[in-house]
Specification:
Flagellar basal-body rod protein FlgC; Flag_bb_rod_N; flagellum; bacterial flagellum; alpha+beta; 140 residues; 2 helices; two-stranded antiparallel sheet
């Protein structure tokens, strides 16, 4: 596996985890948003990842696998209906629709995405360190 492949694989992971962190931020920003109906309420979004496998080339190099974002989908958890008859968005029964974002689950997802991001950065740093070591071997 070449250093370029290592950088490409780690870079795809960085891009995927960045998107994951962005969706978490969007969900947390809308965690307590109200709407006039359940159809208009904010629904949490989650990225769906897919592994992309490389083919073995003529040089016989070891194929790698990278990650890409297949889609960003809305979660299917039900929106929360709260009884608040004095709220401006209250329906005729006094209920207000709130987003289906679970802040605790989002924080756990954020911590996992951060750890994955840091692991990818460490992979890139190790590859760079190995390249520098190889260059120093050639200069002696």
């Amino acid at each position: 596996m070449s250093f370029n492949q290592i950088y490409d694989i780690a870079g795809s992971s960085l891009a995927a985890q960045s998107l994951r962190l962005n969706t978490v931020a969007s969900n947390l920003a809308n965690a307590d948003s109200a709407a006039a109906s359940a159809d208009q309420a904010y629904r949490a979004v989650k990225p769906v990842f897919r592994a992309v496998y490389e083919q073995v080339n003529q040089a016989g190099q070891v194929p790698g696998a990278s990650v890409e974002v297949a889609a960003v989908v809305n979660t299917d958890a039900p929106v929360e209906m709260r009884y608040e008859p004095n709220h401006p968005y209250a329906d005729d029964k006094g209920f207000v629709a709130y987003s289906n974002v679970n802040p605790v689950a989002e924080m756990a997802d954020m911590m996992a995405a951060t750890q994955s991001f840091e692991a990818s950065v460490n992979v890139m740093n190790r590859a760079r360190s190995m390249q520098q070591g190889l260059l120093q071997l050639g200069s002696k």
